[in-house]
Amino acid sequence: MTFAVQQAVNAFTVGAIYALIALGYTMVYGVLRLINFAHSELFTAGAYVAFLLVGALGGTGHPGLALLAALLTFVAIGLFGVTIETVAYRPLRAAPRLAPMLSALGVAIIIQNAIMLVGGKRPLVYPSLLPSGTFDLWGAVVSAKQVTIFLVAVLLLAGLELFVNRTTLGVRIRAVSESLSTASLVGINPNRAIALIFFIGAGLGALAGILYASFYGVATFTMGFVVGLKAFTAAVLGGIGSITGAVLGGFLLGLIETFATALLPVLTDGVVGTEYRDIFAFLVLVGVLLFRPTGLLGDQVSEEAMVYKRDF
Amino acid sequence: MTSEAVALQRGGQWRGALLLAAVPLLLGLGAPLLANYPLRVLDLVLIYALLGMGLNIVVGYAGLLDLGFAAFYAIGAYSYALLASYQYDLHLPFELVALLGAGLAGVAGVLLGIPVLRLRGDYLAIVTLGFGEIIRILLNNLNDVTNGPQGISRIDQAHFFGLPLSSPLDFCHLLLGLTVLVFLLVWRLEVSALGLAWAALREDQDAARGCGIDTTGAKLLAFGLSASIGGLGGVVFAAMQRFVSPDSFTFRESLIVVEVVVIGGLGNPLGAILGAVLLTVLPEVLRAYADYRLLLYGLALVLVILLRPSGLITRQHGPSWLVARLSGR
Known about the structure:
The structure holds 2 protein chains of 2 kinds. By secondary structure, chain A is mainly α. Chain A has helices at 2-32, 38-57, 63-89, 98-119, 144-166, 168-178, 180-185, 190-216, 223-238, 243-267, 279-291; strands at residues 124-125, 134-137, 140-143, 218-219. Chain A contains 11 helices and 4 strands. In chain A, 52% of the residues are buried. Chain B has one domain (14-326). Chain B has helices at residues 3-11, 14-30, 36-61, 69-83, 94-117, 123-141, 143-146, 168-190, 193-203, 205-210, 215-241, 251-264, 269-285, 293-307, 319-326; strands at 84-85, 90-91, 158-160, 163-165. In chain B, 51% of the residues are buried.
């Protein structure tokens, strides 16, 4: 029982982070049908920018300071995301699908290596920007960090859900992701809606980066790679293009991965250990593509997920 | 044009074909004059040219993005490392392992392709990215089989039909031969019915399907063929280095092959060769700036896509064009 509770707590912590990143992938894919490879690097960039900001603002300690640094990071990376879209993706909107994907890949490599050149190759010892302390929950040890990460993520996700469903800007975003050309027919400027999507997606990804680095106490310039892969898997699992799906997929992937990793050594008598943690997300991805390519909530079959039934 | 006219035109192109064939021939004859270091660089160029032409089938012909090419390269390399070394005290001949390695990589490609390729193209990028990472994790952690991060050393010296392959010069000749073979293969494929199917698929999948093309089958063939060329490259790489470790098969490696294809020229084997030359020789010259290498690769990728999406040599200026041109047409 304690084991299950402990693993569930861990699962919801990583799940919350996956969900926050998955949103950026799913919103961009929903509108542009583009796998935004740069997104995972914005996650890393968020952690590094917040680190620099906290240093510039005069160290840790005050919670208001961490909040301010997070807010500034959100805006900075958000604007960076918008810039990337304008410079590297917008000119390619009419080009063959391969072009924007390659451009996104190039941008991802640029960001990752720029971070390496600025922040160094060595892992960064990350200050904890989250409240410390632990408490007991049905025998499991829960840290205040974990609770904070979960609450922050849930608040942000709820905020986004409200924003998208209850505001005019949100309606525009939904209209554009439904159909870019039809939305522009009814007077919505698709470029603005897309810019907004990149702003929000990149900002949330950056916040996820801060939470992730604070939780593990370390940041590396390559940390976005695997996390990004998992977050994209979460988006596919939930149903790509669906915001609710990304959240569901994020938490679900967190659960699957955490429990599978925890159970694997037990089931195999320790022959196979936790070093295979990163494999489960890939298995989930392949499984979803095999059996339910539209994802859990992808009822409105996206063009991409469409399978020619006769083939297999 | 009547078939006689085509035959006549083809017949008139022997001059171009001979001129083109003279390039690898002269390279092979001139290679003994080179010192070991330039020969090693040349070997590397040829390996990347081989890999580039292989990846080009997927990316350039079928228009799909494969970000895990290093995985197939690794499958080939570890095939040789496991089947011709003291790891299991197996010492299979190089020729056999070359076939096995290419075959295994091809099978892996088809198996990986089945869940993804019946869908539209985009997911392939992310699945191959994940597959590359999985292979790396397996190579690092299956200690009993692969020796983990230490890698496998004491790999057998290869023999090619009795001739020993030991010096960089031997491998230069082997690789020249393989490059010519693969070049001819992909060139013939491009102008075959299958090549036309790939072109149709690349331009518009639905229209291709409407014309009766088995899109999933065509994509699987492209992916499997490309993977087996990657596997073949891996076998040669392992025989040449006589040491393999997971470090040689990271995402960075996949990325370099993608750059070779995209910067050289999508859908053009001549472009892949040019890309291989540029991306191998430039880093050698600019060794002092090694830290900036990937940053520049990223920048180059974005700039090429934005400013010259066809790459340095366009698709139209492929081998067929070159032969016609050299024949004075």
